[in-house]
Specification:
Length: 99
């Protein structure tokens, strides 16, 4: 079952991500992209939240398409990074622009 947003916002393990305390962090996500015909489906396969001493309040990601054929689909894994500062709003953090 997928977690409910309120459960994530109140999860103590993610406090560094959503709190306004002076605790910088880096969010790293590995996303599996599955391409079938003209549709790309994204699935989070791994993520971690780490203490960090630098923040830029920006997203960064791998920028090269390297889809590999597997059966009737093509797949690739991309990595997204976000270094959060304490001054950035917290709840918009989960909203990422679509590609």
């Amino acid at each position: 079952m997928a977690p409910v947003l309120d459960d994530l916002l109140n999860d103590g393990r993610l406090a560094r991500l959503f709190s306004m305390d002076a605790r910088h962090c880096a969010l790293q996500l590995w996303i599996l992209q599955i391409k079938f015909e003209q549709v790309i489906v994204n699935r989070v396969v791994y993520g971690r939240l780490l203490p960090y001493n630098y923040s830029c309040d920006c997203w960064s990601s791998t920028d090269d398409d390297s889809f590999q054929p597997i059966g009737q689909v093509e797949i690739q894994v991309i990595r997204l990074n976000r270094k959060r500062s304490v001054a950035s709003p917290t709840k918009y953090f989960l909203i990422m622009p679509s590609a």
